Amino acid sequence: MNTAIELTELTKTYGSRRGLTGLTLGVNPGEVFGYLGPNGAGKSTTIRLLLDLIRPTSGTARVLGLDPRTDAVELHRRIGYLAGDFVVDGRQRVGECLAFLGNLRGGVPAARIAELADRLDLDLTARIKSLSKGNRQKVGLVQAFMHHPELLILDEPTSGLDPLVQQTFLEMVAEARDAGQTVFMSSHIMSEVEAVADRVAIIREGRLVATDTVAGLRARSFLEVRIDFAAPVAAEEFASLPGVTDVRIDDATLTCRVDGSPDALVKAAARHTVTALRADSQDLEELFHAYYTGEAAPGPVAA
Predict the structure, then answer these.
(1) Rounded CA gap, 79 and 49, in Å?
(2) Class in CATH terms, 5-213
(3) 222-281 adopts what CATH topology?
(4) Can you give the pTM of this predicted structure?
């Protein structure tokens, strides 16, 4: 199996409404793949297509080497899934619910359920209808992880969780990857997946706009540079340098933006007496939101 998930020109429309357009994407076995985009971008549509909960208008999907439509029963045994709108019978106690779901999968040891519940600070004796949104989300996480699936498909998994539990969840994801499991995780929060994702895809308005490692996305970001000189300098000397834009001069202080290597700027500045220099890289969250709004110029998309 060369890919855990392979999508080719996958498209889904709802009448005149766009859901997903020509999505081509590959997820490698054993990697954590962050699938990012704003609400309504097409993340949940993609996940439902992977699980054959809805059918594509055109294009193909292969999951764990299988066809989600013709091999759904076998495929679902090998997947742990957390829906973005996780709902279970509110009359059950948490432990009863998880035991029932485990039995549907052929049985999950009670010790495994108790271990995950303890890590997430989840009360197994509480009735589900009495739980807060965050605690209901913990139930969803336990049922997704408890049977050690080959592939975890998690739709907005940290919704409603407090920061401490979010950190525990990220540790669970890292442990799953270390055990050879594949994790496909959708989110609209870049910082949520930055610490654990091997690769990230950004989707906007149903279309893929970038796929890269976190380090690769960082390489696409720019520098905000401020240089203080001993004497005033001319803006024209710096404005024509490769990669340098938004040049502003205030007396003897230069500020600008640098895309790519700052080598040319540094060499030009060295012709003068520099008294101070500061370069701040663009925050990755800012870059992510630039892709959200279409303000970023996408680099090569490599699935």
Answers:
(1) 14
(2) alpha beta
(3) Alpha-Beta Plaits (3.30.70)
(4) 0.79
The Cα 177–Cα 181 span in angstroms is: 5
Q: CATH 3.40.50.300 occupies which residues in the chain?
A: 5-213
Could you tell me if 192 and 158 are in contact, meaning their C-beta atoms sit under 8 angstroms apart? Answer: yes
Three-state SS annotation for the chain: CCCCEEEEEEEEEECCEEEEEEEEEEECCCCEEEEECCCCCCHHHHHHHHCCCCCCCEEEEEECCECCCCCHHHHHHCEEEECCCCCCCCCCEHHHHHHHHHHHCCCCCHHHHHHHHHHCCCCCCCEHHHCCHHHHHHHHHHHHHCCCCCEEEEECCCCCCCHHHHHHHHHHHHHHHHCCCEEEEEECCHHHHHCCCCEEEEEECCEEEEEECHHHHHHHCEEEEEEEECCCCCCHHHHCCCCEEEEEEECCEEEEEEECCCHHHHHHHCCCCEEEEEEEECCHHHHHHHHHHCCCCCCCCCC
Tokens of 57: 């208008």
Query: Per residue in 40-82, pLDDT tens?
Result: 889 999 999 999 999 999 999 999 999 999 999 999 999 999 9
In the chain, which segments carry CATH 3.30.70?
222-281
